[in-house]
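Feature request, filed as a ticket because there's no other form

It would be nice if the structure record came with a short human-readable summary line next to the tokens. Right now we just get the raw output. Example of a typical job, pasted below so the devs can see what we mean:
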Amino acid sequence: MKETINQKKSKTTGKPSQMLVNSESKGKQSPKELSDSAEVLTENRQNKSDSDKVVKKNEKSKKKKQADTKSQGKSKKNDKKTKAKRAQRRWIIGVSLGSFLSTVFVSFVSDKLLSDANLLISVILLLVIVLMGIVFDIIGIAITSVEINPFNAMAAKKVKGAKTAVGLIKNAPRVSNLCNDVIGDICGVVSGTISVSIAAQLTAYFPLLESVVAGLICSGAVACLTVGGKAFGKEIALNNCVPIIKTISTGIATVKIFFRGSE
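Raw output as currently delivered:
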């Protein structure tokens, strides 16, 4: 009965018989076909595992490259830090030796000049040294408080001295150290030596004046002029830092152009 029904359905549509044939063919596969399908599955699994291994290798290589680039960046940063530290040490040693030699030289020259000088020349020389210390203190304060943007604009327009000013501002700590500390201390030492010489000359001109009193008067006068002048100059430096640095850089650029031909 089932076969007759199927045959009738196959005559009308033709589909049920094909489905039965397909199902029967699927259920009744030969051993060779089964082995072939198993081999195909194993090959697919192997290919998948190989692709997974390739992906993992690529990920490992990428991670290794990233780690290498990070290590190279860290090594470059460390090299820059070590170079900066070495440069700073060299600067400190050079400034210390320069301060020693320049102080000895200036003190020797001032002693030679004051040995045969009268009181008026000694006072004038003292005022010049004190004024020099005040001027360089103004420069040191101005270089640390000025901004670099106006001078970058001037350098773009090729204004004379702007390039030199940019270089000074980028090295502001060293320039300030040179002006405020090195030259300021040298002027302080030399002014103290000149004040002692002036005190000795005062006691020679005025026998009633004691040497201790003359020394106290001279040292107090020098301190008053130095501290008061630097306090007054600090306000000038803060309010006029741009024109001060422009004037100084123009002078330095003129000297550079005279000797080297270019700024």
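Something like this underneath would help us a lot:
The CA atoms of residues 46 and 52 lie 10 Å apart.
DSSP finds nine helices and no strands in the chain.
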